[in-house]
């Protein structure tokens, strides 16, 4: 890789997840941080049922997806009170639905698993799109109440939910290590032994 480059893990993962949902994938490649090229790429996908992208949806000077939707379509949703995954975008570009997922790998995983997947299933005619989840006792302590609903990457060990040590949204290893998402509602803490909601990744990505 050259200076300033990173591995494009999102591309591989999203293509795999979409094919598991029986979607025909048109890979539009990687775009530079440029409004004109973003607009041109969106326009070239006029005959698809959905445009799904990652990155370019936050508040930086080089995040252009929202600008393109505002100029030539509509921006219906921008930002959610969840962590990771706050800068999620939904709208339409010249009539085509667009879902813009965050670029950090863990954020991409959470927003696709919980939101984009549900949208795709509903478009396919599925009525019940809510992922299966069940209560398990916590084998960890979460002492930081937040103002967003958090989805921790974790797994089950000896009947308890444990979390990966680094919950940064840029750490893809947390997803490889985990076998589920642990929901921590906004404004709450978790003590060891408390009951938490566990969503198996096999349910939403399998």
Characterization of the model:
With 206 residues, the protein is of the alpha+beta class. It folds into 2 domains: 116 residues, MoaB/Mog-like domain (Molybdenum Cofactor Biosythetic Enzyme, Chain A, 3-Layer(aba) Sandwich), CATH 3.40.980; 72 residues, Beta-clip. The chain has 6 helices and 10 strands, in the order H-H-E-H-E-E-E-E-H-E-E-E-H-E-E-H. Strands 3, 6, 7, 8, 9 and 10 form a 6-stranded mixed β-sheet that branches. The model has no long low-confidence stretch (mean pLDDT 93).
List the topology elements.
Elements (H helix, E strand, L loop, with lengths): L8 H12 L14 H10 L6 E4 L10 H8 E6 L3 E2 L5 E5 L2 E6 L3 H19 L10 E4 L11 E9 L2 E4 L9 H5 L2 E5 L10 E6 H5 L1
Parallel strand pairs: 1-5, 3-7
Antiparallel strand pairs: 2-4, 4-5, 6-10, 7-8, 7-9, 9-10
Helix pairs in contact: 1-4
Q: Based on Cα principal axes, name the global outline.
A: globular
Order of helices and strands: HHEHEEEEHEEEHEEH
Number of strands: 10
Distance between the termini: 31 Å
pLDDT average, as an integer? 93
Radius of gyration: 18 Å
Query: How many distinct folded domains?
Result: 2
What name does the CATH topology of the largest domain carry? Molybdenum Cofactor Biosythetic Enzyme, Chain A
In CATH, what is the class of the largest domain? Alpha Beta
Q: Which spans have pLDDT < 50 for at least 5 consecutive residues?
A: none
Q: How large is the count of helical segments?
A: 6
């Amino acid at each position: 890789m050259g200076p300033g480059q990173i591995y494009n893990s999102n591309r591989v993962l999203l293509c795999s997840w979409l094919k598991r949902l029986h979607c025909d994938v048109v890979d539009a490649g990687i775009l530079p941080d440029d409004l004109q090229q973003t607009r041109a790429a969106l326009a070239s996908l006029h005959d698809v049922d959905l445009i799904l992208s990652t990155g370019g949806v936050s508040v930086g000077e080089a995040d252009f997806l929202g600008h393109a939707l505002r100029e030539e379509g509509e921006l219906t949703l921008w930002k959610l009170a969840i962590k990771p995954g706050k800068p999620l975008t939904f709208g339409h570009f010249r009539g085509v639905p667009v879902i813009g997922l965050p670029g950090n790998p863990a954020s991409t995983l959470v927003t696709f698993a919980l939101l984009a997947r549900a949208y795709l299933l509903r478009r396919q005619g599925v009525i019940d799109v809510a992922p299966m989840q069940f209560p398990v006792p916590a084998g960890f302590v979460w002492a930081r109440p937040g103002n967003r609903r958090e989805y921790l990457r974790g797994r089950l060990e000896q009947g308890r939910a444990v979390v990966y040590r680094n919950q940064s949204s840029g750490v893809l290893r947390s997803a490889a290590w985990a076998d589920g998402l642990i929901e921590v509602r906004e404004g709450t803490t978790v003590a060891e032994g408390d009951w938490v909601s566990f969503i198996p990744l096999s349910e939403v990505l399998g």
